[in-house]
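Quick look at the format.
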Amino acid sequence: MKVLFIGGTGLISGACTWLAMERGVDLFLLNRGSAPDRARGATTLVADLHDEAASATVLAGHRFDVVVDWMAFTPDDIERDLRLFRDRTDQFVFISSASAYQKPLSDWRIREDTPLANPYWDYSRNKIACEERLQKAFRDDGFPIVIVRPTFTYGDTQVPLAFNSWQRPFTAIARIRRGEPVIVPGDGTSLWTLTHNTDFAKGLVGLLGRRQAIGQAFNIMSDEVLTWDEITRQAAAAAGAEARIIHISSDFISACMPELTGTLMGDKAVSAVFDTSKIKRFVPDFQCTTPFAEGIRRSVAWMDADPARQQVDSALEAKWDLLISAYEAGLANAKALFAKNA
């Protein structure tokens, strides 16, 4: 099976590259060639995807059984893909996002037919618009789409907490080890699903080449569901420490740090429990085998193994400390006001 990954060296896509190669897929990667060590033996077609002419040149003469686009985020990206691959693939897999699902939820369990609507986050609305354009191409022209919606997926290089730095994920671990407070939105009891990238890869690679999947959308994630408090405690345990959790309401956080409104109100503040029965029907051997307690131990061990991986985002921590100070000051003022008027 000849497969093209657009990208293929990222946190999630890299795990899929590894598994596809392990299973004997004839894998090509279309990217800028800036991370050859992560290509894992796949054939790299070097081009900047934003240069459509250059991409068309390196794709000339190729036809693929499957194309997976890890790098499409806007409808313009989809229009480019339609031009490049309309007559070049038998299956086109679009990586969407579980954050596209309805916010707030009307039902606690999220299935593939849960409505798509996220008024808080541009990222999610763009993913919805991408899906809608692809559905139209499928209905009108038979373009062979498959839509995949992952939730928060992590690997050895990430520490997936409600509050952390994506670029410098050791930040939260260092903070926990110093005994400083870590923020958890709400009361910490919201339910969340985290998926290890090696588990996600089993579902994604299992869909490659399955004609029955064309025209369908799939949830691919773990069945393990944890509260944000428990996620934070398990991360602290992996770091050999105890978490000092401070709960701050999502509304308060968004008011103080509006740049977090999308990722918080449009995602992490809402319980995320998913029905994964569909992917299991289409890929019978799909099973997530890395519980978070194990996955986060691997992440912390990976970071501890090399001091170069232990960078912290001091500027972001300063904003967290300011947020905590504002919350505590407001709480103290409220208590005083009510005591005065008791």
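Next, a different chain entirely:
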Amino acid sequence: MYSQTLDSYQKMLDSTTISSEQKAIAQQEITRINNEKKAIMIAENLIKTKGFQDIVVFQNGDSVNAIVRADKLSQEEIAQVQNILARELNAAISNIHISNK
């Protein structure tokens, strides 16, 4: 998803038919997406250091969804994951949804 979106914005930057204002917006979006990707990667790695085998994080606007590879998650583990996601992704705890698989 990120790759396709970044490719689209890059094509806009390379285009000679769009305005400099549109190019500036495209550049801002590229920066935003790259920052989001970096924050997700950092959050996933920090969560893995807490002993989880694997985690996948999806961010859609204000909503953050995380799928943790674990048979069961204790309330303490859920709180750890929530705290990391809230801090790294600037998300409200109420917008963080965690499930296990």
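The chain is about 55% helix and 15% strand.

See the schema section for token definitions.
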